[in-house]
């Protein structure tokens, strides 16, 4: 709670200010994204721990759940899909808070290439071959490698073993849509086994492999806001507009300092900042993070998934949901266009969205608005002809440049191990036996989720896990970090281990037929 507060709470704030903004609490939660809010709600309502404070740099909860608008239409520059319906907890939250959404039909595609509309269907053919052969074969190979305990490979190598070698612009584009457009990095940089598993956990694991697109005027952030609003006395427990600069930890507790010199002293802290933030120097840890944790953080990838929204004075495309463009020269260049101007989303909106990932996103983030518009228009003119109108409005997110995020979500990099991911989550100062009772600083976020890294469900499950582990540590005893990693999951509704699965085949486009 900061200055400029309504009357009813001003007495409380005066006390805080008089004490020169020093707060003392049992648990401080750093970050009010879905992980932090979910952890806070579980502490309050499931563990009956009321003595906690949430610290957030932004003036609101939600983090990477980030609504804005274009031409009066609500859009999401962050998370946008509920990916996997069925028993996905995010699907339950979306329904609980009545978040508007509709089925996103990844099969409903028009194909384009350097000559415009892809009349002879080369691109569609490449898509079918990737889905019906390459990814089916790759999944079997990945499962077999796990059964045999063979080392992981990069995804490019996995595809190669599956008989898929992308040579033509069509094959490269099909692969881009199926892989990069989901994981935001190219196959060669990505783990083979973990990304195959991710596909299955997120899309098939919840029993319904459909995925729905959210478009709600209150924003997808309602799944965070709704949970936050259930926390009793939330206003007294959350400090907005406070950017953490230093996290000092010892076996006695944690002292957090913010940019305006507010300090929070706590017995326990939960850091939910993104792996991108941890990879940078925006936050100082005292003492510095141990080498085993630094290695692990460095070896994971904070990928970038950049959704650019463009509104036109009129609609010059037809009613398909997706238009995929195979650039003759550069793989994935402005390849995936999505129309909001369809009956189930925003008919009459004249609104398109194009997604850039990885290097193309980094480059575009550094460009001016006009340069991005020019790049969009050059591709759209190739697709639809020279006569199309210029845009009237554009929204260009720049996630990688934002010191509160430093990218969009975690991709499991080639060569990163399960042990390293456990090491990112492992608490400090001393995660090793014999004395787990010295744990004070905990870590959680989408990036610490073994099965759901990169997704909202990862943030949700990791927030719940962290709250249970911290509550145990505060009330009873702390588990060794090895046990902390997974033993609590079953009771939290998340099963660990590779379930036996009947793989039904198909790539992204055909997930909902599974
Ligand atoms: C473009 C994009 C598309 C995505 N698409 C999907 C999707 O379709 N489906 C899906 O399931 N997931 C998607 N995701 C991933 C999803 O958004 C994340 O997994 C999830 O929101 C992460 O939540 P979190 O709480 O772990 O982290 P965050 O949301 O990053 O929360 C961390 C919080 O810490 C705050 N913070 C950071 N540094 C500081 C500091 N120094 N001081 C104080 N506060 C600080 C931040 O402001 C933030 O609020 C997408 C993400 C992006 C960005
Ligand atoms: C946080 O800052 C915003 C401006 O960015 C302001 O509108 C809001 O009142 C502030 N909130 C608090 C709690 O200080
Ligand atoms: C849910 O949202 C829809 C559309 O936004 C609205 O018509 C409906 O009344 C809402 N239902 C509830 C229970 O809030
Ligand atoms: C996938 O495997 C099948 C049989 O196992 C094989 O016939 C097919 O050629 C393979 N696909 C590719 C793309 O190599
Ligand atoms: C998946 O869930 C959606 C939304 O509830 C539903 O419309 C669809 O029929 C389900 N699909 C399957 C295969 O159960
Ligand atoms: C914070 O405190 C330090 C040292 O005590 C001081 O140098 C700095 O100016 C203070 N910053 C603010 C924003 O008050
Ligand atoms: C979609 O638009 C293209 C040209 O942009 C056109 O050639 C094609 O026939 C259209 N498809 C449908 C189904 O209308």
From TrEMBL:
| Enzyme Commission identifier(s) | 1.4.3.-
Cross-referenced InterPro entries: Amino_oxidase, FAD/NAD-bd_sf, Flavin_amine_oxidase, Flavin_monoamine_oxidase
Keyword Signal set for record: yes
**Names of the cofactor(s):** FAD
GO biological processes: polyamine catabolic process
Q: Name one GO molecular function term.
A: oxidoreductase activity
Looking up SUPFAM superfamilies in the UniProt record yields:
FAD-linked reductases, C-terminal domain, FAD/NAD(P)-binding domain
Residues annotated for FAD binding in this entry: 35, 56-57, 244
Range of residues in the leader sequence: 1-18
Which keywords describe this protein according to UniProt? FAD, Flavoprotein, Oxidoreductase, Signal
* Top-rank taxon, per record: Eukaryota
Residues of the Amine oxidase domain = 34-470
Q: Which family does it belong to?
A: Belongs to the flavin monoamine oxidase family.
| The protein, known as | Amine oxidase
- Organism per entry: Lophium mytilinum
User: What are the top taxonomic ranks of the organism?
Assistant: Eukaryota, Fungi, Dikarya, Ascomycota, Pezizomycotina
